[in-house]
Amino acid sequence: MARIPRRLVLRGAAATAAATAATTALPGQTAAGATPDEAGARHAGGAEPTVKQPITTTVPRGQWDYLDPYYNVVRGQVPASYHPWVSNRQDRILLYTRTAGPRHAHLGPALPAGLNPALTDAHVLQNAVVKWMGEVGVQVDWTEDVTRMPGIGSTYKAVVFGSTSRDTLWKHGTAVQPAAAVDTTTGAHLDAARTALRQYLRAGGGFVGIHNAIGGTEYNWPYYEGLCGGTQYYDHGAHQNGIIVTLTRDSSTAGLPARWEFKDEWYNWMPFPTRVKFLLAVDESTLATRAGTHPGHGRFHPISWCQYYDGGRSWVTALGHDSAAWTDGSGYVGQAFFKEHIVTGILSAMGKLPFCG
Questions:
Q1: What do you get for the CA distance between the two ends of the chain, in Å?
Q2: pTM for the whole thing?
Q3: How far apart are CA 169 and CA 213, in angstroms?
């Protein structure tokens, strides 16, 4: 898809805001690493390396501008920060849908432990991801077993968090005997999945966060907040129609029109995402109602973005609340475009399509 000038995509005040974002650096931020131009006009930091390089410094040469001291990682539009450490990854992904709090209807009933437990028709998101990725030659394993999180040396090309919630990576229900409370030899490693996910990313893994995965997951783990773009969901308005603006050329937006209708909850963010390449936004002027507490984002309200993070790739979208959005032939407004965005976003995080470029 030929790149559409943003002045032709956005309208009125939105166009003014986008133009300002593209030229104005925030205080203390560098033009290359952290301006609101993260709508993706350019890449910075070279190309993805194809062979391992010795790690001899905390921040690789030439990448100091991309160190985020809060999350203590190199992140942003920095292909040169990618780690090609695992050479035998398969065209296979892990879909992780464990909820430790609210559970979206599109996930169906909680799944038992293990890999690839039986799915029912109620497991709408899981069935859709398996079907959609199968159509492009990618195998999908699925689980809600926290012990199955990929880690060092994993051969999965991406792990997809689908509407996870709360402390999804905590191993709940592991009892410790009161008498052993001070026994440091106990095997109760309750946050092993956090360690695994971090090590997976550091070895060049791909991460995809869908809907509630950036809408109330791992609130109290800063590393995960950074993985999602340095942001967290705050609240949302009514489930309603709105117009999505396709912001930039990217492998995950190539098949999308400049403006298209969709129905969702339109998450509000706090803090506002940073150091990312923004892919889609919602035109707030097309929404009938707003959230009651958060003031919204006015002229620029992003809903999908990507970044390199701590050696890996991260692609996230807030879209996907309604089960009908995951159902081919449902007639749901914008369903075909949503499917295209999800499939190509996953493929890009896997490295099968150019990532965030």
A1: 13
A2: 0.87
A3: 12
